[in-house]
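# step 3/5: fold
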Amino acid sequence: MTSLAAVPFGTLLEQVAAKTPTPGGGAVASAVGALAAALAGMVVSFSLGKKSLAPHAPALEDARARLERARALMLRLADEDAAAYGLCNELSRLPETDPRRAAEHAPALRACVQIPEAVAAACVDLLRLMDTLGPITNRHLRSDLGLAAELAEAAVRASNWNVWINSKGLPAPEAVDAHERSRQAGDSARDLLERVRIACRD
């Protein structure tokens, strides 16, 4: 499978629209998270080197590095999600008596929950970082920072859909725990998004 990072954007759109199980919603949520990190990175890039923001240069350099890592993480998680869901889809087509399905289906399904959870957690971390950037970045890019935060929060909500749906196949206690973690991630993301909105409107 070709890595999402190597696929031209137009081709990715065609692949998502095609009648194939992957790339699907999980990969799209990760890609949205990667776009959020990239757009926040642009805000930081336009802030570094400005004389008025020189006192914040160390924090901005740190933010740039963290955003680059976040972007790479999102792309890796997109690939992992596509692989996990592809395997789960393949196994679900096997007869229930097939030994491979019995051995591999539960771990594959757990991966289909854990990966979107990881995307949501990473996007909450992104929002925490963006919350610090409002006062120390170029004011002319407030709309870009606000949009980056909107995308990150949307990626959390999108990832939570996959957590909720895929966890239905897990034992009840695991599903309840997954639902609670997704609820907490969603609450944190909404709160942080509102903080960034306020900062960007000042």
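# step 4/5: annotate
The chain has one domain: 23-201.
# step 5/5: archive (pending)
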